[in-house]
Amino acid sequence: MAATAIAAEEVTKGLAAWTAGYDVAQATPSSTTWARHCLMDWLACTIAGAREPLADILADEFRATAGGAATLIARGGRATPHDAALVNGTLSHALDYDDVNQLMHGHPSVPVASAVLALGEALGKSGREVLSAFMVGYEVECRIGEMAGDEHYENGFHATGTFGTFGAAAGCAKLMGLDADRTALALGIAASQAAGLKINFGTMTKPLHVGKAAMNGLIAARLAARGFTARPDAIEAPQGFVKTQVPGFKPMPVRPDPSAPMAVEQNLFKYHAACYLTHSSIEAIRDLKRQHNIGADDMKRMTLHVDAGHLKVCNIPEPKTGLEIKFSIRHLTGMALDGADTAALGTYSEENALNPRYIALRERIVLDTTPDRNRARHGASVSIELKDGRTLRADHNVGVPARDVKLQGEKLEAKFHALAEPVIGRARTRAALDLVNRFENLPSLKGLMEAVA
Question: Which of 93, 59, 439 has its CA nearest to residue 273?
Answer without folding.
Answer: 93
